[in-house]
Fold this protein.
Amino acid sequence: MRVEGHIAMPQHTSPPPETRVALLRTMLRIRETEERIGASHLRGLTAGSMLHLSIGEEAIAAGVGLAMRDGDLFTTHHRGHGIFIARGADLDRMMAEVFGKRDGYLQGKGGSMHIADIALGHMGANAIVGANIPISVGGGLSAKALTPGVVSVAFFGDGALQQGVLYESMNMAALWHLPVAFVVVNNQYGMGTRLERASASLRFVERAETFGLVAREVDGMDVEAVYAVAQNLLEQARGGQPVFLMAHGYRFYGHGRKDPSPYRSKEEEQAWRLRDPVEQQRVRLLEAGALSEDAYEQMLREAREACDKAVAFATASPELPVEDLYTDVYVEQEAN
Ligand SMILES: Cc1ncc(C[n+]2csc(CCOP(=O)(O)OP(=O)(O)O)c2C)c(N)n1
Ligand SMILES: [Mg+2]
């Protein structure tokens, strides 16, 4: 799906100055952290043979993430570092988890693709395409019954648009008036397959509408546009009207960090990199006088220092002893 011509840009007024800066700070934190995670992966320091980075998709994570509130619930697909950071992940514990170390969120047993933190509302990343979506519907059901006003957000890739479970989930959310937001991080590809080659129809917004959802699409490289549309949609979701947001973006690296992306052209990559969401927001704020060069440099320094600290923390953390492999895997219950 090409961006030009497909996106109805929402009419929005700019958010308050401190929010505009917070959106940039969040994207920068994601970018710096993921570059460090990627570099660590290439040095063999992360757990697992595969690593999925969301570099290029920061505006979607930050825009929706900052439109959410404390107490809101979410799940992600396998490319979820950015979303978790936008929702306040502790970088030390996150880095340790990605390194497979004991001080990680899940003692290193989950790694990048299964990270979770119930305290922050993160019900889990999920490596099975589409599998996190019904979990978020369960979160919505729980919120409706127990914590009215909370919204449950499922973040997933364009690959999940071809999974039946998405449509079962949208139907149930609409039928039961659940506070659920379905957010598609459309980076144009599922592994090496372009969305056009995987779906007979590209009318996903209409598809969601026929299920009874309020559905929108947005330029996922423009963080302020994402934030504005997400705020509007999440408010509707809080009242029990499930919503769908298709955000169009791009992953700057391959499917995994080591994938050289032979299935897409260098010209295409370059065209998207020219629309770098972090750079766009930086320039926008500098030109508007909403941010000084010094303040930006300071922000970048802080992000890098946080990464240094997180990598040092993860490196110093031990691995779990092998005897602990099977602990915390199943809930211990008396047979009855
Ligand atoms: C049910 C299922 N089928 C196939 C796979 C293998 N697989 C892993 S990631 C992926 C592509 C996912 O694409 P998308 O949902 O667009 O997310 P992206 O990687 O682009 O962020 C596939 C097919 C899987 N993990 N789960
Ligand atoms: Mg994709």
In short: Confidence is low (pLDDT under 50) at residues 1-9. The CA atoms of residues 193 and 263 lie 8 Å apart.
